[in-house]
Amino acid sequence: MSLTHKVQKADAIIQATGGDEWRRLKEICTRIRRSENQLLAEAVPMMEQCIHHCKGLCCQNIYPDEIITFADNVLVLALHPNLKPAMSAAARHESLFTSSCVFLEGGKGPCMFPPDLRPERCLTTFCADETPIRREIQEVRRAFSHLHRFLIWRQPRLIKEWVWNVLPS
Ligand code: SF4
Ligand code: SF4
């Protein structure tokens, strides 16, 4: 699935989700955001290396589509819907070859996503010893697994509702 398709699909599922399901989705995404904040707070010493020395090597020479999932797009758009035009525009620059991440602002960075709404893989992958922050990383992954389960359960029902709405009455 291309990045453009993931952004569109994430927006479509959000638009079609209302009432209690929307409240549930917001709760799940808010839990992810909280866990990302906890991880960021504990990872400050490791991030020093990323910010001041390496300057985000792991955002370059990548296939962004392999890293950034449909669920990551749902997370960002559920809590930060005004990013959709910028995400859609950036996704159109996706290349067939390795490149800098299309979500780096101006092609250089920083990342256009808020620090506590980053894709799961971006935030839970370090190239240093992760032992001191293992618990926080696990909490982010647990929080994301709720979102994955929600989406697996929601998608077939969404298709059924769509078919039901287009059938002649
Ligand atoms: S995780 Fe490693 S490669 Fe990525 S920005 Fe930090 S130091 Fe650089
Ligand atoms: S989404 Fe952000 S953090 Fe992740 S690879 Fe792209 S620019 Fe880097």
Description:
With 169 residues, this protein is an all-alpha fold. It has one domain. Helix content is 64%, strand content 0%. The chain has eight helices and no strands. Helix 1 crosses helix 5 and helix 2 crosses helix 5. The two termini are 34 Å apart. The model has no long low-confidence stretch (mean pLDDT 91). The structure holds iron/sulfur cluster (2 copies). One iron/sulfur cluster (SF4) binds next to helix 4. The site of one iron/sulfur cluster has 12 residues, from helix 4.
Ligand kinds = iron/sulfur cluster
Rounded Rg: 17 Å
What oligomeric state do these chains adopt? single chain
Helix content estimate: 55-70%
Number of helices: 8
Order of helices and strands: HHHHHHHH
Q: Mean pLDDT, as a whole number?
A: 91
What is the tally of beta strands? 0
The fraction of residues in strands falls at: under 5%
Shape: globular
State the end-to-end CA separation: 34 Å
Largest sheet: none
Low-confidence stretches: none
The domain tally reads: 1
> From the helix content, strand content and strand pairing, which structural class follows?
mainly alpha
